[in-house]
Amino acid sequence: MASGLILGIESSCDETSAAVVRDGRQVLSNVVSSQLIHADYGGVVPELASREHLRAIVPVVREAMQRAGVAYPDLDAIAVTEGPGLAGALLVGITFAKALAFGADKPLIAVNHLEGHIHAVLMQAETNFSDASPLLALVVSGGHTHLYLAEKEAVWRYRNVGKTLDDAAGEAFDKVAKLLGLPYPGGPWMDALTAHGIADPELFPFTQIKQKATGRTAPKLAREKDGERFDFSFSGIKTAVRRYVESHAMKEAIDARVEALRTSGLDKTKPGEATVAKVLEHFDVETLNLIASFQSAVVKNLVRQTFAAAEEFGALGVLVSGGVAANRLLRERMSALAGASNLPIAFPTVALSTDNAAMIAAAAWPKLLARDFALDTLEATPQLRLG
Ligand code: KG4
Ligand code: ZN
């Protein structure tokens, strides 16, 4: 291999990213441009996403190359996310990567976004696992909640052993956050607002909320074990929060909160020390308890299924990736159980948890070694599966 340098490009959702990675693990640059425009709509608007990718792709790729101090002739390959994701968004990255590969006469490598998330962890932690296989991988983000059994052969092979039956965990976080008047995306806000121990995560067990609100017994949450499958369900927890809000006349206070955050400009900020303190002023303890209890129920569901699957398949380690892997409670509970079960566990750094192109370049490395190149007919595959 000439240089071991791969330029990765990622544009599957609302982040335009480019990165240069050496030998699948040394990140020389990882530029991520997040599309803040979607905050106005409380969710990603596909048409706007494509337009923003078009605007960002050239400067983002140029900056990644400059920061890495690399020129196109130095590269061994160009890797791009093939799917899953938004069709128009994927198309921008793929078209650009194809043109670059053609112009620079470099091979093109197609990467599954979900495999990218797994490599965000493996690129840093492969040595922790000292080649242990199989590993159990939880990919948990705004678009996905999947469990994979990852087996290392010449390249990594994946078998899907669980997925969400309704909302992705991050999607449930974002929807409940919106319902309670938090800025978008709400997952990081819920994490930050509950990290100070003010709220009681056990105050509202969700079965109780559901019973209070509807007078009926709640359906059994979580253990969805069916044969060898370990699926997830989050819409029941989400609905329980909505019912609680409706039956406790919280709407007026929530509308007032949304308005206050909007006029102060806090709705366009990310959770940092100062912004969290300011946003907290707009919350009462009941709502914070609700947020903490919701988060705790989601995390319990994730932890339970992941470790049940790890046990069932005799996994020798656990890895957790995707945007929700940044969640503090999830990391804490996963790490505690891994410690108790004597299983090595690894998470990506927070920067590598959410969508980025370094993970795409890292996942492309074994494919480069295996000369597994994409044809120039490569197309976006919005529903691409892994395993
Ligand atoms: O991986 P990602 O950047 O994009 C997708 O592929 O979806 O994940 C974004 C998702 C959003 O739903 C966001 O709310 C959630 O990850 N997220 C979190 C945290 N950080 C990001 N959810 C809970 N706690 C966090 N700290
Ligand atoms: Zn993702």
Task: Describe this structure as you would to a colleague.
The protein is α/β, with parallel strands linked by helices and 387 residues long. It has two domains: 5-121 and 351-369, Nucleotidyltransferase, domain 5; 169-343, ATPase, nucleotide binding domain (Nucleotidyltransferase, domain 5, 2-Layer Sandwich). The chain is 45% helix and 18% strand. The chain is built from 13 helices and twelve strands. Strands 3-2-1-4-5 form a five-stranded mixed sheet, sandwiched between helices. Strands 8-7-6-11-12 form a five-stranded mixed sheet, with helices on both faces. Strands 9-10 form a two-stranded antiparallel sheet. Helix 11 links the parallel strand 11 (318-321) and strand 12 (345-346). Helix 4 crosses helix 5. The longest helix has 28 residues, at 285-312. The model is unreliable at 208-226 (pLDDT under 50). The structure holds 5'-O-[(R)-(carboxyoxy)(hydroxy)phosphoryl]adenosine and zinc ion. 5'-O-[(R)-(carboxyoxy)(hydroxy)phosphoryl]adenosine binds next to helix 4 and helix 5.
